[in-house]
Amino acid sequence: SYEFTIPIDDEFINKFIKAKNSLPDAKNFAVQVVNGSIKFIINYSTVNSDNITFDVGTTDVVNLDPICFSADKLKEVLVANKGDQGTMHVSSQGLSRIDFTGADFESNYWLVQLQN
Fold first, then answer.
1. What is the DSSP letter of 32?
2. What is Dmax (Cα atoms) for the chain?
3. Please, what sign has the CA dihedral across residues 8, 9, 11, 15?
4. CA–CA dist 88, 85 (Å, integer)
5. pLDDT tens-digit map of 12-35
6. Strand 95-101 with 28-34, pairing
C-alpha cells in the first residue's frame, strides 16, 4: 500500500528537471514528509552536500524518513511524459509507482528504493 500520492503536472515536471539539471552529478532524490509537508530533495545525503529541496504538497502522513530513488530514472520518465497529467504514489516500504494518462494511452512506471 502507498502512504501518499503526489500530483504530477507541468509545474512539478519543470521544477524537478531544472533542479536535476542544476546538479548533473546527482544520482538520487529523496522523498520525505516533515510535519505533513512532502519534500523532494535532489542529491540527498546524510552528510553536508549540495542539494536542492522543494515542497510538493501536503499529506495526512505526519512524518516519514527520507526514501531515496534514482534521480536519473525519474528525469527520463518525466521528460518522456511531459505535457501529460500523472500521479506518483510513494510507499514507506521503498516502492514508488508513477502513473500517466494521455489522450489515448496509460503508462505506469515503478521506482525501487536505492540501497546504500
1. E
2. 45
3. positive
4. 10
5. 999 999 999 999 999 999 999 999
6. unpaired
pTM for the whole structure: 0.91
**To which residue does cell 529541496 refer?**
53
> In this structure, what C-alpha cell is assigned to residue 50?
549540495
> Three cell numbers at 85?
497529467
What is residue 19's DSSP assignment? H
- Written as nine digits, the cell of 4 is 501518499
- Sign of the C-alpha dihedral computed for residues 38, 46, 94 and 81 taken in this order: positive
Sequence-separated (6 or more) residues with CB below 8 Å from residue 50:
23, 43
C-alpha cell at 27: 544520482
pLDDT digits 0-9 by tens, 83-111: 899 999 999 999 999 999 988 889 999 99
Per-residue cell: 86 = 500523472
